Amino acid sequence: MTSLQEESLYFKLQPFIRSKKQVDEHSNRFDSKKNAEIAKNTEKDRKCERCNTKYRVEMDSNGVPKPLDENNLCKFHSGWIKYRIDGERYYSCCKEDPDFGPYDPCTTDTYHISEYPGFFNKESEIVSSATSSGSNKAVYALDCEMCVTVNGYECCRVTVVDEEYEVVYESLVKPDDMIIDYKTQFSGITKETMENGPSKSLKEVQDDLLELIKEDTILMGHSINNDLKSLKLRHDMLVDTVIVFPHPNSYKRNSLRWLAEDELGRIIQQGNGHDSAEDARTCMSLMRKKVGLHKDF
Ligand SMILES: [Zn+2]
Ligand SMILES: [Zn+2]
Predict the structure, then answer these.
(1) Which of 9, 54, 201, 274 has its CB surrounded by the most CB atoms within 10 Å?
(2) Among the three residues 109, 137, 155, which one is the final residue of a domain in this structure?
């Protein structure tokens, strides 16, 4: 090992590398409630994660899920609960106070949404970097934006940046299943973005990614296992900023937004939805700083 190699990010990250199994195990502690919910869901019988209604997925003759009827729509708040300076709580969507009511939530939709356990287990769709021939001792940060299809959360955009913060890969991903919620407020992606493209199928994106990601490539991200799950991509040299920067309460995780501010003095996720390139660069920047190779982006 030459001293030049020892100064490389690839070398310095070695103590932080975890296998897929280790990252999954770490992540499970945060998701035990969610996992229990998912276990109660089946392919047909599900519980909506927006309105808690139990429902059955009804397909029409073309195999497309039927929308709900007008009297039984999914009713929910599209935003999240925020706090005013005086401690009062309100929904970011409609400014209503969650501690008063009852009143009808501000948003309705013609579909309920949920994950179900069979979804991520379509073995035939999962690809692995272990089967991708060649070597690439590079470090990449990866981030996906998610939308909701009838099958649950799926990747709709993926961005990969290298250690110099250059975007080395980015694509819109068109899920095979029907999209019922673009999650525009988080993903920044609208129906128009997806339709005007250019977008690729998940299979095409997996092929592209495996050109870049080899068995010896270091991949980093914030809850990187969620991104890899949505890409149906298996990889074992992972750096997860959730693990590297633990929350003082071991059953909570730091948000990337908070880490950016606390560790880097950067305000991120300010615009319309998340920017997957910004999130990926933030992870890269956090790890560069952690190992003494700080560089602004
Ligand atoms: Zn609302
Ligand atoms: Zn619902």
Answers:
(1) 274
(2) 109
